[in-house]
Amino acid sequence: MDLLQLRYFQTVARYEHISRAAEELRVAQPSLSRTIARLEAEVGTPLFHREGRRIRLNQYGAIFLRHVDRALSELADGTRALRDARDTGLGRVAVASETLLTVTHLLGSFRAAHPRADVRLYQSDVEEMDRQLRSGEVDFCVASQPLPGAQLESIELLREEVLLAVPRGHRLDGRESVTIPEIAHEPFVTTRRGHWQRALLDRLFASEGLTPLLSCEGDEPGASQDMISAGLGIGLIPAVSRQVGTEAHVPVAWVRVAAPDCQRRLTLVWRRDRYLSEAAVKFREFTTRTPLMTHRLPPSAMAPGETPPW
To answer: Would you say 13 and 57 are in contact if contact means Cβ atoms under 8 Å apart?
Structure first.
């Protein structure tokens, strides 16, 4: 058993698709299949269910994958620790976020304070964040929705109200607040599944036994406000956008949503069992003492009896 076999197995297990795994690994499919077959012969049991062209991780493969993930993660941590000890810089810190606009100012301020740090930024949905944390591709995720995992730790960075943005001249322009049933038949501009905006929209509608009508699904949450302004629909937008946006650039009207917990919670998430470079440790310290945004959730938007987070 060698490292190449383990890395091939890990990739096939992630995709559960030989051709996609071969494409990422840049190897021929027959060669990849033979490598997996040799590994199965060595461990003494099949690791996948094979159904024609389809391949699925079986119960033995799932057990083995947990150990392979840990082993390869430890080796990656060891490599990073050696590199950090050898180099004169602070090492690397890699961060994933659902939208880059959320962390732009934060990362810029961190780099200005620590110019020797090697900073990497990725835009990822929640599923990709989970994979990146498990594989060690990133040190931290700035997440707007819960990430699963017993080995994860998190710190809340921000809570802010989420408002309904509507085009100027819309029938709701000028309303102070609306209920979910009142907007049940309105077309929504939102993100694809996996992003927090879509998760919040689906949850708010499901609580009323409704399904939202979608006019546009995208991968960049920051583009939603422009599409709403263009008249493509209405949408849920963080309240901070009301402060940082300009009426000339994105002329939309803002309406409160009369629904419980219509807010976004931003958290910094990391694995407690992973090695963190000096740069990563400093980033965590910097993030927890630097306000992520100036906007905070007003007391009037909080649940009865709830204490403001500041």
So the answer is: yes
